[in-house]
Structures are given as C-alpha cells and as structure tokens.
Amino acid sequence: MRDGGDGPPDELLQALQENDRRPYGRTRTVTAEELVEAAEQFAEAVPLIHALLELQEAYTYGSEPRKSPVVFARLLTLFDEQPDVFDERLRHMLFWRFKWVANALLALPEIPLPSLRQWQTEMRDRYEKAGLGLQPYYGQAYQLAAHIGEDTALAFELWAGRPRTRLSDCEACEICERALYHLATGDDERALRVWEPVLAGKDSCQEEPARSISHALLPLLRTGAVERAVELHLAGYRACRRNPSMAGEVGRHLEFCALTGNEARGLELLAENRGLFDEVDSPRDMLDFLTGVEVLLGRVEQLGHGELPAAGFAGRAWTVAALRAEVGGRADDLATRFDTRNGTGAHGDRRRARVERAPLLDGLELTLRPRSLDDLAPAAVPVAAAPTRTTAAVPESIAEMILQARALDDQGHPDSPACWARLRTLAAAGDYIHPDDPEVGPLVRLRADLLDDEANRAGDKDDFAVAKDLYEEAAGLYEDAAAPGQAALARACALLAAAEDAGDDAEAKSAALTAAHASIVALHEGTPDLAPVHEARLLRLRATSLGLRLQKSGNEEDVAPVFAEVDLLLEFATRHEVVGQISGGLLLRAGTHALSGDLPAALTGVDDLVDRLKAHGPAWHLPRAFGLRGRLQLGLRDPEAAHASLAEGLRLAAAWPAVAVDTGRLHGDLAEVCMHLGRPDEALRHLTRSAELDLRHGSRTEAFCTYSNAAQLSLDLGRVEDCIALLDSLMAEPDVTAGEVDDRLLAQLRLTRARALHTGEDLKAATAELVALAAESAGWDDDPGSHAMIASEAAVLLGESGEFDRAREAVDQALAAHKQAPRYEQLSSCLRELARQRAQQQGEDGLPDALALLADAGRIADEAREAEHEAQGRSLESALAYEHGRVNAYAGAYEDALAALEKALALLGEPGPEDDRAGEWAECVRFAGAMEGIYLERVSPALTRLDAAVSRLTALGHTAEAEPLTALASRLRDEE
Predict the structure, then answer these.
(1) Which of 283, 425, 826, 942 sits most deeply, having the most CB atoms within 10 A of its CB?
(2) How many whole angstroms separate alpha carbon 19 and alpha carbon 786?
(3) What are the backbone angles phi and psi of residue 957, rounded to the nearest 5°?
(4) 62 contact partners, CB below 8 Å, separation of at least 6
(5) Alpha helices in 718-783, H assignment, sequence order
(6) Quick one: average pLDDT of 689-696?
(7) CA distance 258 to 241
(8) DSSP string covering 110-138, please?
(9) Contact 283, 105 (CB under 8 A)
(10) What does the DSSP 8-state code read for residue 844?
(11) pLDDT digit string (tens) for 419-461?
C-alpha cells in the first residue's frame, strides 16, 4: 500500500504534487528523476528527501524494483547523517519503506538468498533500535518463507498472531496475505471468508481489492459463487489493466478467461495489455504475467486455433502457437532462476500447476458481448449458424461447383454466397484453369457472377454506390458472355441501387425510385426470351422499387401501383412455379398493407404466408415471415404474441446463415418487444446479439449504434461493470483505434462510458474522459448544443473533485455554446450543482463563489422564461430557490436558507391530489422544517409547518411523501 507525506512549501512542492497526480508509468518516473536533480541544488536536505520519496514511489509502482533499493539507500544515508531533519511523518515514511525494499529484493532472482535474509535482519535491527513493534518485520519474514516455498506455518503464526502496529501493512493487504496462506493449504472456503471484507470493498488501498480479486476468482468458481466471480472479474480487471505493477494480476484475469470458455475475451484483453511485455521490469511480476498468458494461449491452441494472431513481444507478428512457445520458454527460465536462488522447486511447481489446470467451466458468459474463437478467425466464407439441416455437398469438380452456385443463386438460396466465396478463392489462384464446358460458359461469365455476388453483399450493407458500380460492371461482362437475361437483371439492380443512393430527401428519393421503376419496366419489356426465373426476379424488382417509394413517401396514391405490380409478380410466379418469388410477392403484399395502415389485413396475409411456407417452402423465408408477423402484432398492441412469433423466427433462423435471414433484425425486434413486456434484461441480451451480428457482417455503424443503446440500457439497469466492459471492448475494435469510426458516434460511446465510470465511483477516470470529450467537442461548430451538454457534465465532475477553477473554465465553455444552441435545463442543473459542491466542500469560504454560480443559473432561468421554454421536470425557478436554500445552509447562513426555501414553496404552490410535484414540495417543507427546528431552534413554528404539511399530504393520498416529514416532526418533539 502507499503511504502519504508533506513536502517543502515552494515550487518544488508544487511540481511534486503535480507529479503525484499522474498515473504510474514512464512519464511520472522520468519527471520524478528530474525533480531529484532539481532538489539536489538545495542546500537543505528536506527538499531532496521529498523528491527521493517520490522517486522511490514511482519506481515501486512503476514496476522497476531494481531501482527502488538504490533510492532508499540514499534516504537511509540521509537519515543516518541528519536524523533531526526527519520529522515524525518523514520518519514514519522511511521506516515504512523498509518493506518496499524487502519486496523489491524478493522480486529479483539475481539477489542471493543470504542478501534477502541480511536485509530482513537490518530491518529488524533498525526497528528495535527505534523502539518500533516487530509485527511488520515478521510479516516480511512470512512473505519470504511463502515465496521460497518453505514450511510457512510457524512464520505465519509469528506474524499473524502479533498485534498490528502503525507500520503494519494496511488491513486490506494483510487480509490478502492471510487468505493466500489458507488458499495454499487448499482451503478455498476459509480463504474466501478471510477475503470477504476486501472483496466487499470495506477495506482497500493502492493495490486492493484488485490484487485479492485476481487471486479469488478461481476459488469463487470452485465453491460455486459463479455470479460473484463474474462481477469481480469485470471490476477487478478494470482496476489493474495496462498497469505494469499489476502485471501478475492481469495474468490471473487472462487465466480466468481461459478456464471459463472465454478464450476470445482473453485474447482481446491480452491485446489491450500488449505493452506489459516490454514495460514490466520486475521478474516476479513478469513470471506471474507470462504464466497467465501461457495458460490462455495453451487453451486457444488446444482448441485448434494456434494460427490466430496474438499480441506479444514487440518487433514481430505473433501467432498463438509461436507466442505460446516463446512465453513458455521465458517463463520456464524465470521460474528456474527463482528456484535456483531459493534452493527449492516451488516456482516451477506452482507454474506447472497453473499451466496444467483443466478448465473449470465450458462457457461462462462474462460480458454482454460473448464471442468465440471462430468469431476472431478471418473467415474466408460466410458460415451458417449451427445448422439443423443437411447442406448440399460441395462438388469435387469446378464445373459442378459453378453450376451448383448458379442453381442456388436462382433459388435465392442462403448457401449461394458461400459457394461464390469458394469459387472466388479458386478463381483468384494463379493456377486456376477454367472448365472447357459449354454448360458452364466462358471465364468472363464466372467473373460476372462473382461481381454480381459482390454487388449483392454491398447492397446488403447499404453501400449502394459501390453496389451500383459493381452491378453495372457485371452487366457488361454478362453481355460479353452472351447472357442477356443476367445482364438485364444486373442493370435493373444497378438502377435500383442508384435510386436508393439518392439521399435522404423524401421527395428526391421518391422521384428517383419512380424513375428507376420506369427504367426497369422498359428494360424488362425490351429484353426478349427471358427465362422464367429471370423474368420473375425483374417483376420482383419492379414491385420492390414502388414499395420503397411508398415507404419513403407515405402517400396514399402510391399504394395501388404497388399492389398492381405485386399482382403481376404473383400471377407470373404462380404460373411458372417460381416458388421463391411467390413467397416474396406475398411478403411484399403484406408489407404494403402495413405501410398503408391496414395492419389487420397485413397480419392476415402474413399468417397465410406462414402456412404456405410450412407446406411448400422455401424454408429460409420463414424467419423473415415470422419477423414481419411479430412486428405487426406489436403494432396491434399484442406484445405477447409478437414475442412468440419473433422467438419462433429466431429459432428457425439458427439453421441458416444469419445475414441471409436477417437474424440481427430478429434480435433487435425481440429487444423492443421485451421492453414492452417489462423484460429489460432479456432485451439487453437481444440488443447485444443484434449488434454483434451487424458488426460481423460489416454493418458497423448500425452495430455501434445498437451497442450504444445496449450500453445505456445496461447502465439504466444498474449493471455498471457490464456497461464499462462492453464499451471497453468496443473501444478496442481495430477501426475505433484507427480513427475510422464516426467521431460523434464514438463520442456517444465515450460519454456513456464516462457516466458509467462515475456511477461506478471511479471519479478520476470519469472526469478525465469527460474533460477530454469536452476539449474535442469544442470544435463541433455544427453542434454547439452537444458541446454545452458535455462541458456541463465535465464541470460537475471537476467540481466533485474539488477542482473549481477548471470547473469554472468548463462552465464558461458550456455557457458560450449555450448561447448558440440553448440547453436551459442542462446549464441550470450544472450551475446549481457546482454551487452546492462549492458550499458543501468549502462552507462559508465558498459562499461568494457559490452565489455567483447561482446568479448565472438565475440568468439562465430568465432566458428560458423569455423564450417560453417549458422545463421537462422541475421548474428552473423553484429548483434555483431550493438550491439557494441548500447553499446557504452549507455555509451556515440559516436565515437566508430558510428565506430561500420559503420562496421555493411559494413558487411551487401547494400540491393537488394528482400533482407530480408533491415530492418536491414535501422536500422543501422538510428542509425548511429542519432549518427552523434544528439550526434556528424554532421548534414550535417548525412543528406547525410540518404537521400542516403532513395533514395535507395525507388527505391528498401522498402518504409516502409525508413519511420523512412525520419522522422529522417526531425527532423535534423528542428533543423538545
């Protein structure tokens, strides 16, 4: 744990304090080294002592144990030469750090064992000479015995049986050591009982509870406390990630992932901590880290994914298998060095036990974004989700493969993209020989097919401009290959893609779709001798273009033309038995009824379609049909039926590639239905699955938007660590780190993360994130309102941290942005909260600044009133008057506080029976009663006020709101 201290009252002190606020790492360490050089220029020793103490701390928590003893030797020399310059606090810090040196020496296998024992003897002698208790010394003796692997029972009793002293390790650290002793004896349950105060957050320090959590994860699993293990993994990992001094803890989290079926998350966390391979200077920490890494990589390799890329030592690209071999060799060497130094085999034995441990669970869901190793593999072809059907065998000859792909494509079969993907790989090979087969046709025909498939995939991702170009190129190649029907289809698809790329303006988009329809009709009529399957697809495109026009325009006159085209499609497809286009036409007809507002007719049509699909197929149309039925049922306010339909659609979709049957939308629709049914946790699961499917299939913007909604929902549900873990995972996505994601979308994710960090009581991290966001959003000239919101939130967190000057700067930014895009309620709330914080933290001294903030809030309220702005919740005027009451109360100005509360009550007026302001009114009465009865000692008028309010609230049925007032009145009567 970390100690505290004062410093010299000069510029060096300020520099030391500024460095103390920096995170541990190279920047802090280098600055500390520079400050020691600066302190050496002073004639007196005290500045140097403070600088050396800061430098030793930087080395200790920056994982540089070799340098810490050297700095301490200088401090000890100064103490021996000038003991009088060490005041009580500096003396305490000096003797405390004997333990730091003992731990640093322990972590270095090149330090001989006799030297370790000699240092402990030095520590004991120094403590005895200074008249200090020896419990800390015995604590170090026990840790040495545990490290070496000796019999620890006696050493444990000599330490744990002694009373604590001022120089003992903190409660949390000692609890961890006691728990690890019992864990080493195989008593998981006793270890966890000892650990409980730390795991519950009752005892903590610089390293705790993160250290204890990392050791407790596997015991928790072994004793059946699975949910607790998950919760602590998320919180504990966040506390130690990317921290060189906690590399061992990171390694144990990687091991936990490997042993619970979360190998993919383990690789993700390894990538996040790739810097530890080069930043950790402590051999003991490195051994712990590398062993955890090896457990993870070994498990991944066992599962057949040894060729996956992995983050490792700098200077080369690593696969899982290659990195596992390298890590294993280095860790073996470190364990051997420790065991050679110690004269035991303890480190090698402990390492082997970890590496050889079998998985404890097959598939524990750790985060809202569960992924498998298959998801990390660069997929050559789209893979179907756990099919419950028999897929067609892959033909042996290329000619048969081409014919099979075309046949599946004509059917609209979901397996056709996989066939084209295989053919694309084969055709790109340098030794590809195209079949000399008239039925297959020339190579140019295959190239057209592959372009057409690529265009389809671009269209599925709404990349219509790319799709248009690809379709047109494919059409030209089809013409070269003497395939006019396919050429016409490709040109029709290009026309529709161009229309869909016409922008967001409804009128312009409708006009583009009208023109596209006319062109497709002309193309259809001008292409003779079409095969029925091709003609049916052209008719489908005609109907689709008008359906999209209706969807965009919403005009009643656009309904009939869609039905007319659908009738033509259905008549033709039925006559020629083009089964897929029959169901497609029926789906279009139902959708048109829905767009025209006739939901019952649409539902009847879908019900008929479902019956037909069950009888005649194609089976892969059923998931979409059930999806539409579920959406219609929700529109008809039958969420239970909608849930049943969508769940059935999702069940059937599992047999097909997700992108072909739109599994992601089914999950998204189910999430919406679950919210209607009051099942938010189930909704959250569907949201995350919908987003992940979109992410895998390239719809990344949609995926990040959905994940943003999921993160906010998880935060609303109080699942703070789930929210943070989800967002951290997204922030590690390659396109995010490369800056390729829309900056506003990324800002929303970061804003939610900052709010979650604040809710999770990580004020420092939350403040840093919001301050950074406020700086970035200052450049959003097109969106000053968002900047006002972000700067306001940053100001509140800075105020909570006591940094009121920086908070004032952030508020001024928010006010400037507010002038361009008013955010009355957000600015008023921010100013009121900052005023409260200032008065609460600084009392009477902070009152002038607090009142100045409230004056700004008053001007905001005046502006809102002049603009006829209606507040969504509390009125700005009554909220401001109430805050005047609180601010004056914190400053001890009780008369002014009471006057402000009287004003707030007058502004609110007495509540009525259905008044949602009853709670606010009751709180004002309670506060005013407390001011009168407790602080101003006017008990009688306070009781009169409270009793009258209780009677009114009770008569109006607001009994819950009356309870705090009744309690206060009882307290006043008891004290009277």
Answers:
(1) 942
(2) 33
(3) 90, 10
(4) 24, 25, 26, 28, 29, 244, 245
(5) 720-731, 734-737, 743-759, 763-777
(6) 92
(7) 17
(8) TS-HHHHHHHHHHHHHHHHHTT--SHHHH
(9) no
(10) G
(11) 999 999 999 999 999 999 999 999 999 999 999 999 999 998 8
